[in-house]
Specification:
192 residues; single chain; alpha+beta; 45% helix
Length: 192
């Protein structure tokens, strides 16, 4: 599974049902269909920093790709790869368009979508037929694998920061490691 932006609405899977409910149409009139421009969605986005981050990215031009050829891709799932020595590496894949990025403005997207709902598919077909073959660079990112020893090390650092009551350092540590609230709770309660 993939997405055309580098981040997702949530970092913690337990919030997925809340996200789905927030993205549904308004319960009183079922409007808007296939869109999120309503209070329920924006209430959720405003309460989740990761969701708000994605909303800002989509509104900054990543939201409506001009063509599939100009669209990057990021894998949603993280894969576990094992080295010959038996060490675990967590990997996330991404694809970077070598054609560059190009996006529609809202008005352009409405006009093109209203005239040809298969515009993106047709654009890709026409480009290949004309010998303009799209290319992507396949990339991967290795992700830190959380094990018990690593958690104990981070736990001692985190507890030391808490003891000196330095909130800015605590927040910087938390956000740098991209810790979910559940992982933060584990760090605080690890080792007694």
């Amino acid at each position: 599974m993939g997405i055309n932006v580098p981040i997702f609405f949530i970092n913690d899977a337990i919030l997925f049902p809340d996200l789905i409910h927030a993205l549904k149409p308004q319960p009183n009139n079922q409007i808007p269909q296939a869109a999120t421009a309503h209070d329920t969605a924006y209430d959720f986005f405003s309460q989740e920093a990761s969701a708000l981050n994605l909303v800002m990215m989509v509104m900054a031009g990543y939201g409506i790709p001009r063509s599939y050829r100009h669209m990057d891709g990021w894998g949603v799932h993280t894969y576990r790869l094992v080295t010959n020595e038996g060490a675990t590496k967590l990997v996330k894949w991404s694809w970077k368009s070598l054609q560059g990025k190009a996006s529609f403005l809202w008005e352009e997207a409405q006009a093109v979508g209203g005239k040809n709902s298969d515009f993106h598919r047709q654009d890709m077909w026409n480009a290949i037929e004309a010998g303009i073959y799209p290319e992507w660079e396949v990339c991967f990112q290795t992700v830190l694998f959380w094990n018990e020893n690593l958690l104990i090390s981070f736990s001692s650092v985190f507890k030391s920061l808490m003891k000196i009551n330095n909130l800015p350092l605590v927040l910087m540590f938390w956000t740098t490691l991209n810790l979910s609230p559940r992982r933060l709770f584990q760090l605080l309660h690890l080792g007694g």
